[in-house]
Amino acid sequence: MSDINSNENRARYSIGVDLGTTHCALSYVDMSASDGEKTVQGVLPVAQLTAPGAAEERELLPSFLYLPHENELAPGDLTLPWTQERKFIVGELARSRGAGTPIRLVSSAKSWLCHPGVDRRAAILPSDAPEEVERVSPLESSVRYLTHLREAWNHAHPDAPFDQQDVTVTIPASFDPAARELTAEAAAAAGYTRMTLLEEPQAALYSWIQKSSGGWRKQVKVSDVILVVDVGGGTTDLSLIAVVEREGNLELHRVAVGEHILLGGDNMDLALAHTVARKLAASGTQPDPWQLRALTYACRSAKEALLSDPSVDTVPLVVPSRGSKLIGGSLRTELTRAELTQILLEGFFPQVDAAARSVSRARVGLTQLGLPYAQDAAVTRHLAAFLGRQVNALAEVEGLQHQAPQGATLLHPTAVLFNGGVFKSPLLVERVMSTLNAWLAAESAPAARLLEGADLDLAVARGAAYYGYVRHGKGVRIRGGTARAYYVAVESAMPAVPGLEPPVQALCVAPFGMEEGTDAALPAQEFGLVVGEPVHFRFFGSSVRRQDQVGTLLDYWQPDELQELEEIEASLPPEGRTPGEVVPVKLHARVTEAGTLELEAIPRGSSERWKVEFDVRGGVSADQGMGL
Amino acid sequence: MTDMNPGFFGRIGIAFGAFFGILGNAAFAGRVQRLREAPEAPDFATEAPRPAAAPVQPVQPVQPAPSVLKEASPIAALQLLGLLQRDARFIDFVEEDIAKYSDADIGAAARLVHDGCRAVLREHFSIKPVRTEAEGSRITLQEGFDAAAVRLTGNVVGKPPFNGSISHRGWKVEDTRLPKLAPSHDASIVAPAEVEL
Fold this sequence. Notes:
The complex is a heterodimer of chains A (628) and B (197).
Chain A: E1 13-19, E2 23-30, E3 41-43, E4 46-51, E5 54-58, E6 61-62, E7 65-66, E8 89-90, H1 92-100, E9 105-106, H2 109-113, H3 138-156, E10 166-171, H4 177-189, E11 195-199, H5 200-211, H6 216-219, E12 225-231, E13 236-246, E14 249-257, H7 265-282, H8 289-308, E15 314-319, H9 326-329, E16 331-336, H10 337-348, H11 379-389, E17 415-419, H12 426-442, E18 449-450, H13 459-474, E19 478-479, E20 485-491, E21 504-510, E22 518-519, E23 527-530, E24 535-537, E25 539-542, E26 553-554, E27 563-564, E28 568-570, E29 582-591, E30 597-603, E31 610-612, H14 619-627
Parallel strand pairs in A: 1-10, 10-11, 12-17, 14-19, 17-18
Antiparallel strand pairs in A: 1-2, 2-3, 2-6, 4-5, 7-8, 7-9, 12-13, 13-14, 15-16, 20-21, 20-25, 21-26, 22-29, 23-29, 24-28, 25-27, 29-30, 30-31
Chain B: H1 8-24, H2 26-37, H3 74-88, H4 90-95, H5 103-124, E1 125-129, E2 138-141, E3 162-165, E4 171-176, E5 180-181
Antiparallel strand pairs in B: 1-4, 2-3
Helix pairs in contact in B: 1-2, 3-5
């Protein structure tokens, strides 16, 4: 099709969508008006309901979905500027309405989307809703947020339909292949036809580059290693990006990403609220759940006040009564700096040793009800573990003059970029920097410097839009490909020993660093698939084994080298075959242009390709989830 | 005694004003003279009955001219009231009898109301001072200045340019962003009753 590239079909805008745990945002670059590093960029004010029957435009769309009772709202109360047909609420009103009626509120859908313990396509949310509330799946709630953004765009830009623009949707760098695929699926279901995925820490760095309008080349130099610390509302995401030189140009190379850590700003507000509630309880006042939510909200503002102004020592907290008597029924207390320091700085950002490791997660039970929140709240310990695990990450990077210092126990970043509203506080930035620099000083490494000027709230959406623009060759790109190598388990050919599980070997099917739109080599090993029956494989990922190629067979690995992911499932439909017949297949990996990993089973002597599913937590766990 | 009669300093002002008024204005002097001669000048100190109105010619009923004043739409006002109640508990605060509470209790509630009112103003309006100069500084108003944006007080005489000092910088709303309403929405419910099931 030659006219795909003609001017009529070329996207005018590059749209970046930040699909966050607590907020979504949409930014766009007008590519026809941008030239080189001078970009014309905006943030879409997203029209959304803010009260029944009242719609407003806000820069952020809270990632909340509310499923109202049929008698709860007056007819017409859900009218949006572009439709009256919606039966559910997305955004600000969903959040405020849900505070009073949590059983009808879906929140943190993104954390559920990457929760391997549940069937993400099953209607399981809200997880504590009574029978009669019609539930939705984590996938469906993401579809609704993305759809709302598309419709808001189309309403605001009738001349530039959304499906004709280039769209980039961001995901945590730590998302596994299944969560990436589900996000891509949600985007497709929401009508995102030209969509690419981008990791959030990369988006934050793109935004920083774009904001500097060329100045970034003076702020970083070859051999710099940039640590991106992204603490969002619900997740903490770590990435390392090296500055390399290739053919005389500065290039950015993402060398490592951290593990998935469900820990964010919301946990901090909640921790503060519970401390204050305990204080109130000690003085004889027991806040009810409604007051506790109001207290959480008050704590957030108090936290921001204390963190932004070091001269303030206490911030009064007032929780109004629910009734119309405002003065008589209010709860009064205060949040002191000592409490804030104790909970936030010592609880979430303790000044730990470089050898500290996050408390290891206990084995997840089969019937996990809630989200697998990080058990260790200390961001700094997660950071120490990440840098320690990635100590050798730079050895393989092309174009980087890097000499790993003798005896180093952690990778030495030279610059730090922060992202996320939490880091509006200079105290928290300072705490992370001083902790990191203490680790570096202990190994006689130079201190890392802070990359200034990041836009902490909207950087991800802005960076995503900018990325869509640089994909057309208009600026520097971050390379690196997939940040993990992937393996399937192969049973060792050894005699069975009663009572012992046969030892498994791990066969590499997708090497580290596969770029978008590339295919991995075809491994020599074959697997027998039974026609008409799904076959499960244990599946592993490694964020440290950079050297393994397709076909590499591991007999033995360190416990922290390979992480077991969800099982994957391959099945051969019986068309043209006898059910029960065993067909030898090879597993072939490729990374799509959109940025998702795909595994295919290719039968011997055939050109057929059968997709291997990553997300196979089908009926079983869904039933368990529903029954509880 | 009623306090409608001026006090000592007020009387000084009146005396000076009357003195120069009598010197400079023959008609005014005549009115003062008639006032001094009148035996029963109305005295606010006594509860004198209102003098009966002098008989006047009955006025021909005139067809009232169509008013040029426009009725303000109550919708936006109700909307703002609803926002102030929702985010600042404004109506609750004003409707509550505060006489029986201590200043500390009222102060605590006022914080909440203040925070909320501020959030509403910042969210829905862009408010800027009319004059950017510091209060107390002297400015000159040129011919054709906007009388709606600047109110002259004090010795308002002569012709522009006027020199004076800013006693209040004024506020102007540069942008209003009130929520768009569904046609069926009843704005008069500024806060729905809440019933917990």
